[in-house]
Amino acid sequence: MKQQAGMTLIVKTVTRISVWLILLYGIYIILHGHLSPGGGFAGGVIIALAFLNVMLAFGRDFIKNWLNIEMLHDIDSSSAMMFLAVGILGMAFGGSFLANFISHGTLFNLVSSGTIQVLNIVIGLKVGMGLFIVVWALALFHLDRKEMK
Fold it and tell me: Which of 2, 29, 45, 139 stands the most exposed, by the fewest C-beta atoms within 10 Å?
């Protein structure tokens, strides 16, 4: 009997269902970070943990086919440029770096924070993709136990 990569069928089934809920919760934390505890960093960590959950359940080879790792690199790199662009737009329209140049909206509504919500989304992308790429790189690096002695 050939052993498949990853964990048991039960773990894989639960992961197939729960990964989408975890991703949705991470997006919720990012989008509501200006109204409740959370924000870009916390939501980004939750999104990275959803990807890590899939990698632990199914194995490294599955995640390589399931996710486009190069696209994650591109999102990670471009999110730093988006943060810089929001800061420069703040200089151009608000007078200082990261100044609020977007309308505040109505208090306690989803769109009520100006540039804070935009920055939460950018930081969520940066943290989520960057953290998973670090975990991915660590998963690829494997020392043989014989070499460690």
Answer: 2
Spatial neighbors of 79 by CB under 8 A, at least 6 apart, are: 122, 123, 125, 126, 129
CA 107 from chain centre, in angstroms, equals: 27
Residue keyed to tokens 């773990």:
11
Question: In this predicted model, what pLDDT tens digit does every residue of 17-68 receive, in sequence order?
Answer: 999 999 999 999 999 988 888 899 999 999 999 999 999 999 888 888 888 9
Q: How far apart are CA 40 and CA 117, in angstroms?
A: 9
User: What is the C-alpha separation between 97 and 65, in angstroms, rounded?
Assistant: 40
The residue to which tokens 């070499």 are assigned: 147
**What is the identity of the amino acid at 93?**
F
| Count of residues making up the chain | 149
Cβ atoms of residues 51 and 57 within 8 Å:
no
How many whole angstroms separate alpha carbon 25 and alpha carbon 18? 10
47, 27 Cβ separation under 8 angstroms: yes
What separation in angstroms does the CA of 92 have from each of 21, 98, 120, 135, 149?
39, 10, 20, 37, 59
